[in-house]
Design brief:
- Helix content is about 65%, strand content about 0%.
- The longest helix has 24 residues.
- The chain is built from 2 helices and no strands.
- The model has no long low-confidence stretch (mean pLDDT about 85).
- The termini are far apart.
- It is mainly alpha-helical.
Amino acid sequence: MSLGSKLSDAKVSFAIFKRDIKRLLVNPVALVVTLGVCVIPSLYAWYNIVANWDPYGNTQGIKIAIANNDQALRTT
């Protein structure tokens, strides 16, 4: 593949992208759906990051038990 065909492919790809953006800006429903698809996953991620930021921060009142059922090694 030559450099000229790569540049040509890039120009075609950019022209398609530009056309899609223009069509998106003309159609308000498509714009709202696109923005929702972009924003909702970010909000979900931010919410989960904040929720799990310090999972051990409030564990001082939790009671725990330790069980050890190991048997000692016998050396002869």
